[in-house]
Amino acid sequence: MTKTAAENNQAIASQLSNNLPRLLRELSCDFDRRICEGLAARGHIGIRTSHSTVLGNLGMGDVRVTELARHSQMTQQAMGKILRDLERLDYVKRSIDGSDKRAKEIQLTARGRVLAQDSLEVVDQTCDHYASKVGAQQLEDLKHNLRSAVQQLHLHNLPASWTDP
Fold first, then answer.
1. For the range 29-32, what are the long-range contacts, defined as Cβ-Cβ under 8 Å and sequence gap of 24 or more?
2. How far apart are CA 57 and CA 158, in angstroms?
3. Of 9, 72, 78, 163, which residue is least crowded by CB atoms under 10 Å?
């Protein structure tokens, strides 16, 4: 049976809107929106999705700007812009690296540590919301499968701790 042009167009549109990258983006955008809204409700008004590139790679210790940029897959200039914004909001501070005076180290401020804790709680709330919609096992399977894919694809830009079960 031969398809009409309209049927072909419909099939193409369906494939374009239901492919893996699109589905991952949809979930990611919804997740980011929920996190930003949850953090705003806790008083972190200035936090934007772009800040997650720093906060998700910073951890609780001192990290060099070059390392943050590399793990975030962005230029040092772009990373610097985000860091200046987070400094202005008093979430991070820069200091001179003790072993290399040319390098800057980034660390969370006291307010940044509160943000980190609040972020973990908001992520848990968001995951609870998703689990209530799709089921806890399905959500756990999704996380497991994504973690496994990251490991098998050897996505080297991720710190090893991200891929640990």
1. 31/126
2. 9
3. 9
Alpha-carbon span 9 to 47, nearest angstrom: 41
Query: How is residue 28 written in tokens?
Result: 């990611």
**Cβ contact 108:92 at 8 Å:** yes
Domains in the chain (CATH in brackets) are: 17-134 (1.10.10.10)
> What letter does residue 3 receive in the DSSP assignment?
P
Alpha carbons 93 and 54: distance in angstroms, whole number:
12
- State residue 162's pLDDT score: 45
Give the full edge-to-edge strand order of the sheet including 63-64: 63-64, 104-108, 92-96
Residue segments in the chain with a per-residue pLDDT below the cut of 50: 160-165
Residue 98: what are its φ and ψ, rounded to 5°? -65, -30
Q: Tell me, letter by letter, the H, E, C secondary structure of 15-29.
A: HHHCCHHHHHHHHHH
Q: Given this model, what pLDDT does residue 115 score?
A: 94
DSSP-derived 3-state class of residue 61: coil
